[in-house]
Write a structure and sequence with these properties.
Blueprint: E1 24-25, E2 52-53, E3 66-72, E4 81-86, E5 91-95, E6 105-106, E7 119-121, E8 130-132, E9 134-135, E10 142-144, E11 152-158, E12 161-165, E13 171-175, E14 179-182, H1 198-203, E15 259-261
Antiparallel strand pairs: 1-2, 3-4, 3-6, 4-5, 7-14, 8-11, 8-14, 9-10, 11-12, 12-13, 13-15
């Protein structure tokens, strides 16, 4: 019998405390269903009960020092989160960067010290620095590089734009007035974790996925045939007959204006 190939993480660095009651919400579990009750997103359902932590992605508390009072796990996020307490007594959750420890001081201001967790404008961040939780529009809150272990490198400052190499290796222009946090996002080992068994996936709300070729023709365009039959089509299709794999699905117009270099294929 094969051994369980699952891997477990070491959470010793996290603070043993319940989440801040004022900063959590209970979201309604929809299990991939729309208001009509029909399944609109497949392979979702079940899962352990969990609370949503309200994360401050912007910089509402400018020029006020904050102390890290705990590092916590977030079931809705791949990275760890940090609970900050400001000098005025207010508390906020932020995405925790690597090397941030309980008791550290962080601040968000136009220009700050270059240490993990501090947040400032891109124009004041030196070339070669790794940043995360990056704004696209000034004052719009962090939108880029927020997943576990990710970070973007500041490559250059040119005019009103900073050139950043994204985690995908794409080089992009971002306005210098946008804020970004110094450091790389915590929990880089997340990418190497293996669930090992179906039960751990079900606890995360993932239902089983069935191959189209294993279905009957009434349920999927790839279905039917005897044994391991080919799909019998020019290209793969979704269960609803639309082209799949390599087909553009974006409806909104997009632009290359701010992209200096497309991502490099590995």
């Amino acid at each position: 019998m094969l051994k369980n190939q699952s891997t477990k993480e070491d959470f010793k660095m996290l603070t043993k405390k319940k989440p801040e009651k004022r900063l959590v919400l209970r979201l309604q579990q929809k299990a991939g269903r729309a208001t009509s009750g029909r399944i609109t997103v497949r392979h979702k359902g079940g899962g352990a009960k969990k609370l949503y932590r309200i994360i401050d992605f912007g910089q509402e508390k400018l020029n006020i020092k904050a102390k890290v009072i705990s590092l916590e796990y977030d079931p809705y996020r791949t990275s760890f989160i940090a609970l900050l307490e400001y000098e005025n007594g207010d508390k906020r959750y932020r995405i925790a960067p690597q090397h941030l420890k309980v008791g550290d001081d962080v601040i968000c201001q136009e220009k700050a010290d270059l240490k993990p967790g501090n947040r400032m404008k891109l124009k004041n961040i030196p070339v070669g620095t790794i940043v995360y939780n990056i704004e696209i529009i000034p004052g719009g809150g962090g939108k880029l590089a927020k997943g576990a272990g990710t970070g973007a490198e500041v490559l250059a400052h040119e005019g009103k734009y900073a050139h950043l190499e994204m985690p995908s290796t794409e080089v992009r222009q971002i306005l210098q007035e946008c804020f970004a946090s110094v450091g790389a996002v915590s929990r880089p080992e997340k990418r190497y974790m293996k669930l090992g068994k179906a039960g751990r996936a079900r606890h995360r709300g993932r239902r089983p996925s069935v191959r189209g070729t294993a279905m009957v023709p009434a349920d999927h365009p790839h279905g039917g045939g005897e044994g391991k039959a080919p799909i019998g089509l020019k290209y793969p299709k979704t269960p609803w007959g639309k082209p799949a794999l390599g087909v553009k699905t974006r409806k909104r117009r997009w632009t290359d204006k701010y992209i200096i270099q497309r991502r490099r294929k590995k």
